[in-house]
Give the backbone structure.
Amino acid sequence: MKNSQVVPEPSSSLVDNARSVRRAANDLAQVSDEQRRAALYLMADSLKANSERIVSANQQDLNTAQSAGLTPALLARLKLDEKKLLLGIEGIRQVAELPDPLGLRQLHRELDNELVLERITVPLGVLGVIFEARPDAVMQISALAIRSGNGAILKGGSEANLTNQAIMKALQEGLHNSEINENSLALLTTRNESLALMRLDGLVDLIIPRGSNELVRFIQDNTRIPVLGHADGICHLYVDAAADLNKALRVAIDSKTQYPAACNAIETLLLHKEIAATFLQLAIPAFKDKEVFLLGDKASQALGIQGAAVDDDWSKEYLDLTLSVRVVSTLQEALEHIRKFGSRHTEAIVTEDKKTAETFLRSVDSSGVYHNCSTRFADGFRYGFGAEVGISTQTLPPRGPVGLEGLVTYRYRLRGNGHVAAEFSSGERQFSHKDLSL
Amino acid sequence: MKNSQVVPEPSSSLVDNARSVRRAANDLAQVSDEQRRAALYLMADSLKANSERIVSANQQDLNTAQSAGLTPALLARLKLDEKKLLLGIEGIRQVAELPDPLGLRQLHRELDNELVLERITVPLGVLGVIFEARPDAVMQISALAIRSGNGAILKGGSEANLTNQAIMKALQEGLHNSEINENSLALLTTRNESLALMRLDGLVDLIIPRGSNELVRFIQDNTRIPVLGHADGICHLYVDAAADLNKALRVAIDSKTQYPAACNAIETLLLHKEIAATFLQLAIPAFKDKEVFLLGDKASQALGIQGAAVDDDWSKEYLDLTLSVRVVSTLQEALEHIRKFGSRHTEAIVTEDKKTAETFLRSVDSSGVYHNCSTRFADGFRYGFGAEVGISTQTLPPRGPVGLEGLVTYRYRLRGNGHVAAEFSSGERQFSHKDLSL
């Protein structure tokens, strides 16, 4: 499973590069909210001023990719025309407007007379971000990193190398005009460097992979650095015996078809046996209209579904217009199915029975559990976070859609007046542990 | 670095065992505060009722260990007499009294009319805890796990196997009389099982190693499951030019000698050149009194320190009465030293200059940064957390001393009335994102 052979030791130039980002990030951590905000506007302005150069670099990348025979889907992701670039620039300005995640006091406690503890949010340090060929990610991630006071080392798909370099040059020019050291951002361009990035523990504090399941797994298996991301998104919708069936259909269609390649789209529909027949009478033609291909268990095949789901289907993330359907006898059976096959991403129930809804909300241990609404709401923008680094399916926080808040940590500050632990151990002094106002 | 050969695949009996803990933990997550509290009291009572059996099992373990030639230090840690057992039982009752970390609403937001988002604290799920031969850890960790609604799979050092089994039996008997499934706790007894535990991703949510640096590193390198712990504790005390030297000495002696084997004891003393001579005149005899062996750089050797620090010393965690001393010319040089050699655990400054203190507090990116007090305060009990799982030197939260709060995560609950994402994408509806009272 783990194969250290393929992960090279970092070259000395990579280590130097990372050290310089770390030093810059150390300074960045002490820069004010206003200065970070101003830097983001300057980054946006610089991208605007360099837009012609960036679009033409992208044209070159596109030409090379076309000759290399990239699929139309990949070409579409690689493409950065002026319109997409302007959207990215606008995104940076929006991130500038978000409230500062730093310097928040989370705890304030007197431990003893003149011995006061605080817990304050601070940046993580340096982010390592590995993503596939989407050049707009360079802008978005750089903005989130600087806004949250973090340095970032980025590695994009090599198909976008010229575009990414042009964008990074513009971003660093923007930083150059600001109070923030331009070395806070760095771009890697070779595969060897991006592999060796995983070995930079001590210099990189968090790795954010944005790409396929395989990419995320590979990184998790080959680094000691914490990884923020999600491997699978196998989301379920359960239609209860007490569901309003029109509501259920509306939610099911949206959860599956609004953007089927997203991780928060459903892969499995669980139907209570009491409503399965009636619901499928509505749902089969409705899904057909939307070109959704249904795969059913025996019971739902008997109710009109033509495709047959095999055992493997329950743990498959289709990421397209395929949906597996299963009939269950009880809520408990639905919960058991989710426990067994779910990826703890997002699950929803449709029911008019409040008690059943609350049992579902309490029992399912996914990062998002929904009642009477689409799983597609599992998203940082929709939650009101303003911007999103990604969605995490790990259990530990940050979990679910992760905004700026997920890019900060905290630090304890203790201010005393010659206080020593020995006096408390001996019983000479006692801790007061009195909470002060935040 | 990574060696998958030594980590065996989990046996089917281990997987069954872990599944049964997971199922029990799922039920436990839904049990009330009062029921979890009551279960802890029953666990304590059962340990009390079985104390003779436990102490005699420990006697057997001790006899075996003695014959095997264990060091006196290890024998002392292994020993569980009635007094130590009663302390452990008292500890469980104290954990019962701690405020419930579950069910706290951290976010409450209207996304649209009748579409309301909540973020609620919930248990992590199942903890995997690997510790060396300290049988009191079984009691403490089991109490913390149940209080926070988590299942736990524990593996202690094999020297304590009989003791641990007797304790676990008593704890499960206590749970048996409570509302909580006794399978919420499980004890592994073979090394193979504890290795295979690292492969139980999907069944175990967090691994907590309590032991040597080597143990922590080995686990980090061999699991995809998040690991809570600290590898190194290389803490620094910087005595500034504007320090009150008596205060500095008091803090230095406590930071080094109050418990030198602890991770929050200092390993290096940094002295501003302006006070180095005067301070060492006081400090050299004072440290000698406490049997501390000083190793100095050239400058501090010239001021009377007899031992010579070599390059390696700055990154060594002595864990005993050895202290390296270095003279620096400026605060910046001290900060640079800490940045280079520190492990981001806890660092302190002694100074009467408030501005210098604030610069230090702002610049050092360790989990604890202190002014005019001992590094030995870096501890969950001293911070007022009531109990501590351990101290984490990772950058991401939970960081520093980790209490019950570090054993919980959160879940997003979204309640709607047939809401679908498509209507928001099309612009037909707009998010209100209105924060509601918590």
Observations:
- Chain B touches chain A through 75 residues (CB under 8 Å).
